[in-house]
Design a protein that fits this description.
The complex is a heterodimer of chains A (322) and B (119). Chain A is α/β, with parallel strands linked by helices and 322 residues long. Chain A has one domain: Purple Acid Phosphatase, chain A, domain 2. Chain A has 7 helices and 12 strands. In chain A, strand 6 (172-176), helix 5 (193-204) and strand 7 (212-215) form a beta-alpha-beta unit. The relative contact order of chain A is 0.20. Chain B has helices at 2-30, 32-35, and strands at residues 37-43, 46-48, 51-54, 58-64, 73-74, 91-96, 100-105, 113-118. Classes of the chains: A alpha/beta (322), B alpha/beta (119). The A-B interface holds A 77-79, 112-114, 140-141, 144-145, 183-188, 226-228, 284-288 and B 44-46, 66-69, 71, 75, 84-85, 87-88, 103-105, 107-111, 113.
Chain lengths: 322, 119
């Protein structure tokens, strides 16, 4: 697997030596039936319609967790008048997984308008999920009007700055970053100097073989800057993670699934549990996409992530709510 | 001769119209605090019109017509004006009492920018 060229799919079917040179850029549009799979070492992504094709053994690992995103509790427009119902459906989907995930990540936009009752409703619904621990990072909708004070009071225990933190699970180092604060006119998501310094320090002591999972709301790669879908200073953050053999970045914000592999880093965005947004540039604006009611659940979803110890790979599986 | 009179009358009418317009504008300016108002829209993740030119003392009201909440926040460090988050159909008004250029943006979607020019 030497001398891979750009834009070439890697076919190093798992249990591999992790040759991730080369480049993969693909997009999965859940619900449209068009999605992209990279078999092997780095990432597997399927929509629910194809779950039956996955060998159950492939779903088992040393560690599995679920990512949910963009619940937008409080949203009630035609694109989805029942965001509580679809979040409950996501929980049912999680509870129905063959192997119970150990915990959940919520990658932001928990609420639509940062109202206390919106956060309360999400917490109430998520209590019904088998995994009891939920790790949150804020979306821009969670820090409205109060510079994130309420978010920190609710979820920020033990975090630094605007709510960033890290933790270990079974040898995997998880890093929750905040890139929705102090946004500048005309700009993208921002991590900021203090957070970057903290990150550099946080990973300094770790062994190169430690698998890293970074999660943040706005994508840490340039999905579509014209719509603000990227983070200004993410390159600096990724530079601090260069030494690691396996880095997985999980984001939300864009309400659709997308994957990209660049060097040692796998980027992945999750679908929203509330409403879909258009493909980059395929609409006048990134506003909520109205789809026929019977199709809505096929474009919403949850992401399940499996970590298999010793293989330096995280398998990411997207399920729709259909 | 007849033609000369017509021209003179036309000129006079135009002159009166001009004066009236100027007076009208003056009156507008004098009572600006009560009278001058301009509407702006937030639609499809953009401010419309993107640049709005108004007389000093004009109150500008933005209405959010999107399905998604937005804000109207001036770009300067002092944050001359800053709305609360505006949900669908909610409004924000600010009276521009000083001349100048006032760029602003949506602090939730910072790619959305606009400008008010106050003369």
């Amino acid at each position: 697997m030497s001398e891979k060229k750009n834009d070439e799919l890697l076919h190093d079917h798992n249990h591999d030596g992790i040759d991730r040179r080369g480049f993969l850029k693909c997009m999965a549009w859940a619900g449209t039936g068009a999605f992209c799979v990279m078999k092997g070492g780095v990432l597997n992504s399927y929509s629910l319609g194809r779950m039956s094709e996955i060998n159950t053994a492939d779903m088992m690992g040393e560690l599995s967790f679920v990512q949910i995103s963009d619940s937008h509790m409080g949203f009630n427009k035609p694109a989805n008048p029942d965001v509580a119902g679809t979040l409950k459906a996501a929980v049912d989907k999680i509870n129905g997984l063959a192997a119970a995930p150990e915990f959940m990540l919520h990658t932001g936009d928990i609420s639509h308008l940062s109202k206390p009752e919106e956060f309360d409703t999400v917490e109430q619904i998520l209590k019904g999920a088998k995994p009891k621990d939920v790790f949150y990072v804020p979306g821009e909708h969670d820090v409205l009007n109060d510079d994130g004070k309420q978010f920190l009071e609710r979820y920020g225990k033990g975090s630094k700055g605007a709510g960033w933190y890290s933790f270990e699970k079974k040898g995997v180092h998880f890093i929750g970053l905040v890139n929705v604060m102090n946004l500048k006119a005309g700009g993208l998501g921002t991590l900021g100097h203090d957070q970057l310094e903290w990150l550099e320090d946080d990973v300094k002591h770790l062994k190169k073989s430690t698998p890293i999972v970074v999660f943040a709301h706005i994508p840490l790669w340039s999905v579509y800057p014209e719509w603000g879908w990227g983070t200004e200073d993410s390159a600096q953050a990724l530079a601090y993670l260069k030494k690691f053999g396996s880095v997985t970045v999980l984001n939300g914000h864009i309400h659709q699934t997308m994957q990209k592999v660049e060097g040692n880093v796998t980027f992945h965005t999750a679908a929203s549990t509330a409403f879909p947004q258009p493909q980059p540039g395929k609409a006048d604006s990134p506003g909520p996409m109205k789809v026929p009611a019977e199709q809505l659940r096929s474009v919403l979803g949850v992401t399940e992530v499996n970590y298999v110890q010793g293989q330096h790979a995280l398998a990411v599986v997207d399920s729709t709510l259909a | 001769m007849r033609r000369g009179v017509s021209v003179a009358i036309l000129a006079a009418v135009l002159a009166i119209g001009f004066v009236a317009t100027v007076e009208g504008r003056r009156g507008f300016g004098l009572n600006a605090q009560e009278k001058a108002a301009m509407e702006a829209k937030i639609d499809n993740f953009s401010f419309t019109p993107p640049t709005l030119t108004v007389a000093t003392g004009t109150m500008v009201t933005w209405t959010n017509r999107d399905d998604i909440p937005h804000t109207v926040v001036s770009t300067d460090d002092a944050k001359t004006f800053k709305s609360k988050v505006l949900d669908t159909d909610e409004k924000f008004s600010f009276t521009f009492s000083k001349p100048g250029a006032f760029p602003y943006f949506c602090s939730i979607h910072p790619k959305m920018t606009g400008k008010v020019i106050v003369q």
